[in-house]
C-alpha cells in the first residue's frame, strides 16, 4: 500500500509538471502571436486549450483519490493540498492565454503601438516569469522565489504605466476606443498571468518548508533571509531558535504568523 501511494504521488508530480510545461508553451505561443499579429497561431492556442482542461481534470481526480484512499499527513498532505491549488492556478493561466489570443485579430495592424507602449517588453518579462516559476515547480528550489516576486512587481508597474497612456489616448481620440479597449483587456490578462505565477511560487514554498505566505505582506528581504538561513536554524536546538529569533530579528518571527500581516497585491 505504501509503495502504491509513493507511485501515485510521483504520478501527481509528473502530471503537475506536464501541466506547467503545457501552460508555459501556451503562454509563450500567445505572446509570439501577439507580437507578430499571427491570427493562425492565436487560433491554434484556442484549440489547444482543451488539452489543458483535460489534464486539469486528471490532476483533480488524482488528488481526490489520494485524499479519499490514503489519508495523507505532514509533507505528503502539503504536496497534495498545494497540487490542487497549483493545478487550479495553471488552468486559469491557460484561460488567460486564450483570452489574449481572442483579442489578437483586433490589434494585428497596430504593431507600432505595441512597441510604443512597451508591451513587447512586458510580454518578454511575463514569458520569463512563467518559465521561471515552472522551473521552480520542477526543481523545488525556493531560493529563487524572491526573483519571481520582484519580476511580478516590475511587470505590474509597466502594465500600470501602459494602461494610463492608453486611457489618456482614449480621452483624446474617440476613434481608438476599440483597439484601446482590446489592448487594456490584453494587459489585464498579462497581469493575471504574473499574479498566478506568484501564487504558484507561494504554493511551492508551502510544499518545501510549510511556510504559509498567503494573506501576508510580501516582505522580500525577510523571505529571502528566512530561506537562506533555514538550514542553520534547523541545525540549532529548538530553545535557541525561539530565544535568538525573538531577540535578534522580531520581523522574522512575525512572518510565521499567517494572521499578522495584510494581504499584498499579487501584481
Given as residue ranges, the uncertain stretches (5+ residues, pLDDT < 50) are: 219-267
Radius of gyration: 21 Å
Could you state the oligomeric state of the chains shown? single chain
Globally, the shape reads elongated
Structure overview:
- With about 270 residues, the protein is mostly helical.
- It contains 10 helices and no strands.
- Helix 1 packs antiparallel against helix 2 and helix 6 (about 145-170) runs antiparallel to helix 7 (about 175-210).
- Residues about 220-265 have low confidence and may be disordered.
Key features of this structure:
267 residues; mainly alpha; elongated; disordered C terminus
In short:
By secondary structure, the chain is mostly helical.
SSE layout and pairing:
Elements: H1 2-36, H2 39-70, H3 74-104, H4 111-116, H5 119-139, H6 145-172, H7 177-209, H8 220-235, H9 238-248, H10 250-255
Amino acid at each position: 500500500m505504501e509503495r502504491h501511494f509513493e507511485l501515485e504521488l510521483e504520478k501527481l508530480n509528473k502530471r503537475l509538471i506536464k501541466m506547467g510545461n503545457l501552460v508555459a508553451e501556451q503562454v509563450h505561443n500567445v505572446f509570439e502571436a501577439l507580437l507578430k499579429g499571427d491570427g493562425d497561431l492565436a487560433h491554434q492556442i484556442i484549440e489547444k486549450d482543451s488539452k489543458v482542461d483535460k489534464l486539469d481534470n486528471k490532476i483533480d481526480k488524482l488528488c481526490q483519490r489520494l485524499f479519499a484512499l490514503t489519508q495523507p499527513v505532514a509533507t505528503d498532505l502539503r504536496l497534495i493540498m498545494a497540487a490542487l491549488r497549483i493545478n487550479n492556478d495553471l488552468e486559469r493561466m491557460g484561460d488567460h492565454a486564450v483570452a489574449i489570443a481572442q483579442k489578437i485579430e483586433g490589434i494585428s495592424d497596430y504593431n507600432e503601438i505595441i512597441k510604443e507602449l512597451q508591451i513587447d517588453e512586458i510580454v518578454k518579462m511575463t514569458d520569463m516569469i512563467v518559465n521561471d516559476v515552472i522551473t521552480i515547480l520542477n526543481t523545488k528550489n525556493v531560493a529563487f522565489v524572491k526573483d519571481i516576486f520582484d519580476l511580478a512587481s516590475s511587470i505590474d508597474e509597466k502594465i500600470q504605466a501602459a494602461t494610463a497612456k492608453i486611457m489618456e489616448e482614449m480621452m483624446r481620440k474617440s476613434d481608438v476606443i476599440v483597439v484601446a479597449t482590446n489592448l487594456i483587456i490584453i494587459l489585464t490578462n498579462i497581469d493575471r498571468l504574473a499574479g498566478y505565477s506568484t501564487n504558484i511560487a507561494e504554493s511551492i514554498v508551502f510544499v518545501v518548508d510549510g511556510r504559509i505566505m498567503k494573506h501576508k505582506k510580501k516582505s522580500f528581504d525577510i523571505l529571502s533571509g528566512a530561506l537562506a538561513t533555514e538550514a542553520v536554524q534547523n541545525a540549532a536546538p529548538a530553545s535557541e531558535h525561539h530565544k535568538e529569533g525573538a531577540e535578534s530579528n522580531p520581523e522574522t518571527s512575525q512572518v510565521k504568523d499567517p494572521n499578522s500581516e495584510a494581504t499584498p497585491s499579487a501584481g
